[in-house]
Amino acid sequence: MDNGLAGMALRINLTTCEIKRMPTDEKLFRHWHGGRGLVAKILYDEVPRNADPLGPENIFILSTGIMSGCYIPAGSKVEFGSVSPLTNGHGDSNMGGHIGPMLKFAGYDMIIFTGISPKPVYLYIDNDTVELRDASKYWGMGSLDCERQLKKDLGEDFEIATIGPAGENGVLFSCITHDFGRQAGRTGQGTVMGSKKLKAIAVRGNHSIRVHDLSSLKKQVTAIILRTKKHPNMEPWQKYGTAFFIKWSNDNAVLPVHNFQTTYYEDVDKIDGDQLVEQCLITHKACFGCWMNCGKYTKAVIPGKPVVHLEGPEYETGALCGSNLGMKDINHVAYINWMLDNLGMDSMSSGGVIAFAMECFERGLITEKDLEGHTLKWGSVDDVEHFLDMVAHRRGIGDWFADGSKRAAKKIGHGSEKFAMQVKGQEMSGYDGRWAPGMLLSYMTADIGAHHNRSWTITVDLAEGRESVEGRAKIVVYLQHIRPLFDTWCICRLFWGEVDVTLEEIVESLNNITGWGVTVDEVLRTSEMIWNLTRCHYVERNRDNGRAFDYPPARSWEDKIPSGPGKGKGVTKEQVEQMLDEYYAARGWDKNGNPTREILEDLGLSFAADNLDKIGYLGEPIPGGIPPIRGEKYKPKAF
Ligand code: SF4
Asked: b/e per residue, 599-612, with b = 16+ CB within 10 A?
């Protein structure tokens, strides 16, 4: 195949241990572009709407992208997907490292797992040899420990993805770990893997990927390499990774501090990128085909604790497990990062859940008695260590928090829902949106719950005025079409987006790889199609108007920022409603946040319109026809 595909797909029934090989469905790939797009379509088609996300009817997918593993920079990603146990909607999450490209080199574009294995297993792939193998020996091991052991047992040249005890025990925000520190963290994909008793995936392959026009691709990519090498952004990303952003966020009043109570952290100098490099850095690390090497291989040294080695903390972990927990030593942040990696818990949701629990403790809503005699104070790494052990093993009150902050707040009561900082059950990323309204709207409307990577607007918020919310919806919609494309093609946005490579150039690479001859407008339309399908999936599963699910917790509008450069700032409830109205209008949805037949048919999704119609949640027809933003695209400088 001269189109960037590896050529084969696998369907594995874990209940019966049956492994089926089939040729990759090229038409399906062409229509949905692989990665996130393909995951969205398969989940929509195959998972019954009433299926328990942790039951046998949920499916678990690995999908490589059409561009991953090819002769391009940072074609390193792989997408995981299943209905999320955290949000009860379409769930996906991706990771870098090397396993995505390796899966293609072994000959496979996609793996679909169904059913539940009767005993712990891992998937072994060595080119044409594909086997489910007994994993009893590895069950119970930490993610990092398991990866190390599997490499010892199988060979260093295998690429391995694992889950830890949290995924085995059904913690709803469990992640998948690979390359000793790369995670598919969001939406509980590790939880689904654990529910299927699938401990790990080990892959080795040595086939090559054929592309449509190698000589044009080489010429184009070489020019991009020579140009981006000299880009001024390259050096800070290479030196600090994303960690240098902590100070920037503090200066710009978006850093989450003490469970998003404020956005200003006096001790920021103790946990920022400088400290990471000075105190913890051992060496730099990169994913397949990338020389931005944003990964930082580090150690954490704390008197009285073992010295631990890890990758990170990058920005999100640094913010959510640093300032958000009141940590005052970068080694403590790194140690928490290591614990989470080995337990197999998403460090973003975990940071949100721990901070929520700390605020509950501060307010007396949970006590030392609930915490087996321990406290849970801001800045205490020992308290966090004990609390995480309770959560990962669902012990005592840890069982409540293992279900995420939204569900824990329901059990705790006393108005704690107001400060459980999540949307749709998924905890917010490391930015406070009260004085960055576009960012708040991004969290509110992201199809997988509050996640920055669907749309990140803070530089636009800064440039266009932080007090006004007008016009912000269009930007969010536009970015929600661009950013997820990286997860669809399985290339790294950080590389392509931060050194001024244009969308036109990326589409040219796509065409050189595939021969599809697509345009920028066409790929944006594909992304819009995917976005609408995941929305329909969410509404169909949760059976209420879409608007009901799009609100952030009340802290977002009730509490103004109390300190620092953002003191006194914040959006009002009216502004939140205004942003939602403008957002739905820009999408061509009705006021209830439900997609209409007009927009769905226009995107080729009439089957989804029929399904919404059947359950009574099809949007009201739009007066005056379809008004979406396609014709008047807002083009921010960066994406
Ligand atoms: Fe991996 Fe960082 Fe390179 Fe992206 S920029 S491919 S995350 S090393």
From this structure: bbebbebeebbebb
Cβ pair 442, 481 in contact under 8 A:
no
Mean pLDDT of all residues belonging to the chain: 96
Give the full edge-to-edge strand order of the sheet including 78-83: 18-23, 8-13, 108-114, 60-64, 78-83, 90-95
Which residues pair with residue 619 across a beta bridge? 596
Q: Output the CA angle 14-20-22, nearest 5 degrees.
A: 140
* Interval 342-359: pLDDT, tens: 999 999 999 999 999 999
Q: What is the pLDDT of residue 623?
A: 75
pLDDT tens digits along 495-543: 988 898 999 999 999 999 999 999 999 999 999 999 999 999 999 999 9
Report the relative pairing of strands 198-204 and 281-285 from DSSP bridges.
unpaired
Cβ–ligand 1 contact at 228 (below 6 Å) = no
Cα distance between residue 395 and residue 398, in whole Å: 5
Task: Go through 288-318 and write b for each residue having 16 or more CB atoms within 10 A of its CB, e for each that does not.
Answer: bbbebbbbbbbbbeeeeeeebebbbbbbbbb
Instruction: Report whether residue 421 contacts ligand 1, using a CB cutoff of 6 Å.
Output: no
Amino acid letter for position 382: D
pLDDT per position as a tens digit, 575-584: 999 999 999 9
State in Å: Cα 496 to ligand 1 middle.
Answer: 10
Contact 74 CB / ligand 1 (< 6 Å): yes
Q: Which two tokens stand for residue 342?
A: 């080995």
Q: What angle in degrees, to the nearest 10, is found between the helix axes of 214-229 and 503-514? A: 150
Give yes or no for residue 293 CB within 6 A of ligand 1.
yes
Residue with tokens 């000959």: 107
Please give the Cα distance from 12 to 113 (Å, whole number): 5
Contact between residue 177 and residue 96 where contact means Cβ atoms under 8 Å apart: no
CA of 232 to the centre of ligand 1 (A): 17
Segment 434-443 shows an average pLDDT of: 97
| Residues 246/273, Cβ–Cβ less than 8 Å | yes
**Percent of the chain surpassing pLDDT 70:** 98
**Beta-bridge partners for 114:** 13
Check residue 395 and give its pLDDT: 98
Confidence category of residue 180, pLDDT binned at 50, 70, 90: very high
Instruction: With beta carbons less than 8 A apart as the criterion, state whether 595 and 617 touch.
Output: no
Q: How far apart are CA 574 and CA 559, in angstroms?
A: 14
How high is the pLDDT of residue 631?
A: 47
**What b/e readout covers 264-275, taking b as 16+ CB neighbours within 10 angstroms?**
bbebbebbbbbb
Report the distance separating Cα 102 and Cα 104, nearest Å: 5
For the chain, the residue count is 639
Q: 438: buried, middle or exposed (CB in 10 Å: 19+, 13-18, 0-12)?
A: buried
pLDDT tens string 190-207: 999 999 999 999 999 999
Pocket mutation for ligand 1, best pick of 67, 293, 316 (most atoms within 8 Å of C-beta): 293
Q: Which residues contact 401 (CB under 8 A, 6 or more apart)?
A: 353, 356, 357, 387, 390, 391, 408
Cβ–ligand 1 contact at 295 (below 6 Å): yes
Residue linked to tokens 């199809």 = 447
pLDDT at 634: 58
Q: Is the pLDDT of residue 628 over 80?
A: no
Q: For residues 623 and 532, which has the higher predicted lDDT (pLDDT)? A: 532
Q: What pLDDT is attached to residue 243?
A: 94
